Amino acid sequence: MVSRILASEERIFMKNKKILITGAAGFIGSHLCDRFMAEGYQVIGMDNLITGDLKNIEYLFKEKNFEFFHHDVSSFVYVPGHLDYILHFASPASPIDYLKIPIQTLKVGSLGTHNLLGLARSKKARILVASTSEVYGDPKVHPQTEDYYGNVNPIGPRGVYDEAKRFQEAITMAYHTFHGIDTRIVRIFNTYGPKMRLNDGRVLPAFIGQALRGEDLTIFGDGSQTRSFCYIDDLIEGIVKLLFSDYTYPVNIGNPDEITIKEFAEEIIRLTGTKQKVVYRPIPEDDPSQRKPDITKAKEILGWEPRVSRKEGLEITYSYFKSLPEEELHKTEHHTFKDYIR
Ligand code: UDP
């Protein structure tokens, strides 16, 4: 376990600190809820559950420090009482999700961010927004440094996500410089770990799901495109360090250990012991051909770097997926609010 858990005296001090986490039922948001609950914060989780799954946080419902608001942050956000911190992690984040719900993707990154910046301003809260390596598009600079402006197609299928996140960065900086809001921007690279949705379409759950169901692994294109996968605990640690730093420009958080998708498929075949083969499918439009974070800034400013190797992280993640009930493997939908109300 990489996360640092506070000593009990520190937790008492934290007791009145209140944090709002949007996208709380999603993959990263749910891990952030766990982390801040473990550190003794009062946590408000917010989610509209279009891609999030309440299963990810249901065990927190009994905790008195935890509250859940079923709300879409693209509409005005109301939170009673004071707030110290806001983490804006609500957004569809896998390419098939934002193909299915492009308008909501644009709205949550733009209108949602605007609402949360307004909330941060009225509560005098610090806000950290989740940006993405997708702001670099199909990058011509490798590895990607924070000062690279990117190569994004605004009207392609990924444009709804990429441009919403680029707008998010712009409006966050504008609120910082014009209104003096205390802001942080994290650019998240490919991340994986327990609580990812098996059916979210991303390469890791896709390959592991296929192996578990005894299907062939689908490689898009020739598999020569690269990605660099970061284990969730490392990402969470980086986000926490950024939140408590005083650095207001974007910071890349990711694991620079780069691999081709073809090699990655071979790793998953070895890990799962599946007897299936790989099959090739057409490459989706604007699929970036390479991606690897330059994490010099995170190392120098935050003293952060990833610690979990892909081998170790994949084993933990595979055990998680294997532990899910059989029906989860075949599910196309996820748990929604109506599953939790009578
Ligand atoms: N990919 C693949 N097979 C799949 C799903 C994805 O080969 O079943 C590829 C995809 O084309 C991309 C890479 O894996 O090049 C990572 O895709 P993912 O959807 O995980 O996220 P991205 O990094 O593209 O946002």
Describe this structure in words.
By secondary structure, the chain is of the alpha/beta class. The protein has eleven helices and 13 strands. The chain has helices spanning 8-14, 27-38, 95-100, 102-123, 159-179, 203-213, 232-243, 261-272, 296-302, 310-323, 326-329, and strands at 18-22, 42-47, 66-70, 85-88, 126-132, 183-188, 191-192, 217-220, 226-228, 230-231, 251-253, 258-260, 278-281. A seven-stranded parallel β-sheet has the order 3-2-1-4-5-6-11, sandwiched between helices. A two-stranded parallel sheet has the order 7-10. A two-stranded parallel sheet has the order 8-13. The longest helix has 22 residues, at 102-123. It is globular, with a radius of gyration of 19 Å.
Principal-axes shape call: globular
Approximate helicity band: 25-40%
Strand order, largest beta sheet: 3-2-1-4-5-6-11
Output the structural class: alpha/beta
What is the CATH first-level class name? Answer: Alpha Beta
CATH architecture: 3-Layer(aba) Sandwich
The name of the CATH superfamily reads: NAD(P)-binding Rossmann-like Domain
What percent strand?
A: 15-25%
Low-confidence stretches: none
Q: Do you know the CATH topology?
A: Rossmann fold
**Biggest β-sheet strands, sense, barrel:** 7 strands, parallel
> SSE order, as H and E?
HEHEEEHHEHEEHEEEHEEHEHHH
Number of domains: 1
